[in-house]
What does this fold into?
Amino acid sequence: MELTDRKKQILKVVVEDYIQTAEPVGSKAIAAEMGGRISSATIRNELADLVELGYLEQPHTSAGRIPSPKGYRLYVNELMEQQRLTLAETERIDQALQMKMEELDRVISQAGRVVASFVNYPTYMATSGKKHLTARRFDLLPVDEHSCIVVMMMGDDRVKSQLLRLQLKVDTGQIPALVDMLNNHFTNISGGEMSRRLMDVADQVSPQLFLLLSQTVSYAVDVLEEAGQREVFMAGANQLLKLPEFRNADKAHELMSFLSDSKENLPVPDDGPMKILIGPENVNAALRDTSVVVASYDIGDDMRGLIGVVGPTRMDYAAVAARLTGFADGLTRLFGKHEKLPPKEDPQT
Amino acid sequence: MELTDRKKQILKVVVEDYIQTAEPVGSKAIAAEMGGRISSATIRNELADLVELGYLEQPHTSAGRIPSPKGYRLYVNELMEQQRLTLAETERIDQALQMKMEELDRVISQAGRVVASFVNYPTYMATSGKKHLTARRFDLLPVDEHSCIVVMMMGDDRVKSQLLRLQLKVDTGQIPALVDMLNNHFTNISGGEMSRRLMDVADQVSPQLFLLLSQTVSYAVDVLEEAGQREVFMAGANQLLKLPEFRNADKAHELMSFLSDSKENLPVPDDGPMKILIGPENVNAALRDTSVVVASYDIGDDMRGLIGVVGPTRMDYAAVAARLTGFADGLTRLFGKHEKLPPKEDPQT
DNA sequence: CTTTAGCACTCCGGGAAAGCGAGTGCTAAC
DNA sequence: GTTAGCACTCGCTTTCCCGGAGTGCTAAAG
It folds into this structure.
């Protein structure tokens, strides 16, 4: 059965009022909010229906109403007005994203902190995709007879490098051959495969070179493994303590511990750019009475990034959704730019 | 005036009892703790003296005593027994530090998380030293006509690299000359100086090369700036909520916000390997009724790392100090090893 | 001079009781 | 279908009371 327009209108008022005040909303307040055109008694009749239908709840007999998860769901799906960011806010977001940073991780964690400060809820960030990262190109740059720089370009165009200390002197003249071998036999394969091939070529080169080769390969394996790992960043968890629903230290502690520990079981938007999970819609027990708004954005190169905001079920969905979309778009743009152009053009300080 | 041995003994019992229970300790409990050899009445007389002298405080007339900051100070300086870690714990620490990680930042933040889980207090980690980082060597590796890898070795032997997308095609043959110029004119100078020199050489090279040069230099400037920045990591802030003194959400929020925001004003051990700051000894207002135990360790290459633990004034100084020292030593060893040897030797998976 | 037992007193913390007030559901009239 | 009126419910805050832990003081004993 469809709700009448007026019922929806009332539901909307209840949700929005409750989002702001965190207190049960009474019939009188609703009547006032709606312009005083209908009396509180009428509202009460409607409220009773809405409770009956499961969209609202009553903490106790003589209290106002609060939205149920079902009520929030209807609100989010139909009633919520898409909030537009003010120009000033859009600018602040763009400005916040004007980071000149090299490392993907840094950019992401920094962005997470900014988002958290914008929405005033705990925010997590992660990346997804990128199952099989491989090396695409190797170089070795001799430094002196005891050390050598290894440079590796990965499948996603990122370049990693490190100084290797050599246990044995290596004849510089042989380096190019070694680089050839690396590029011919150790590119575009998985880390495990690399280790295996290393064994195969063991007897084809001199011991000194083999040592250098194996150092290089194990560096590559480590880097690929580390780069493939998905890392999760958390920011703004302390925001929770400002909320009335988390003034109870135990509740706050429980959720915060979950948030700072869990690397895996945070919600991801399985499809579409944004997903809203309300209370019990969360599979994860620790999130059962919180809501999560999570958006994804394009990092380029088959990878997607993830921004999620965790809050009480009465969180300001419209505001959070708008800001999250703003950031997601901004980040997509940021990474798109990186993709096409060099990171910076301006040579002056 | 020196305290009698018995007074010190009593003070010690009060501190250690209070550290455990967070409740004012009464004369009777002290008498029992001390073996029942002296009566509670005697203890009461002594307690009155200790209050008089400022080592203890009385929350209200008819309550037990709690240590004052001065009392904790005496305890830490003279009374506290140096706690030895059990073999099992030492092993757990060593095991936790068996990380094969490339990035210094990662190692540090990971270590911070481990420390936090060991001591059950919020823990911060940072690095100090390293004021003027410079580039020591450049390389450019052509990839194709639109891109090129820049490799830079810094003063501390770290190597950074990135793929540059070129706006203009560059003649590969001219790259070596460019690398020479970089190595001759842009090494061992500050980032600001680099930008200035870039202007000087503007008319000595072709526009294409200059563009590449300026991209390289601005990459270098960014990296040096980012690398020189001291970054602070926080872990385990949620541990606070378990403590009775932070069950009040406002207090907890205040401290947690301070901890997660402040990058600069966290205590550092100005000399020696470890420093303990008790309550009001903290210059920073936000830390006035907390204590901080901070240790430093050697990263090598003029840099020092920092582990700090923040807790209530009644924190378990002996336990924290022992574990912190254990970790600091472990980290010094870890970095010492990295310094001398290649990061890994074992080529098998 | 120090230690100890005894005792009246203080004050915190918890629990019960009371009053307040916001809000409801119901009835009857419009 | 809507509204005014009204009795009623129930959580929250305040007040009050009481138990108990712990003190300070006094006076006696070592």
Remarks:
- The first strand of chain B starts at residue 56 and ends at 57.
- Chain B touches chain A through 60 residues (CB under 8 Å).
- The beta strands of chain B are 56-57, 66-67, 123-128, 135-144, 147-154, 159-165, 233-235, 274-277, 290-300, 303-312.
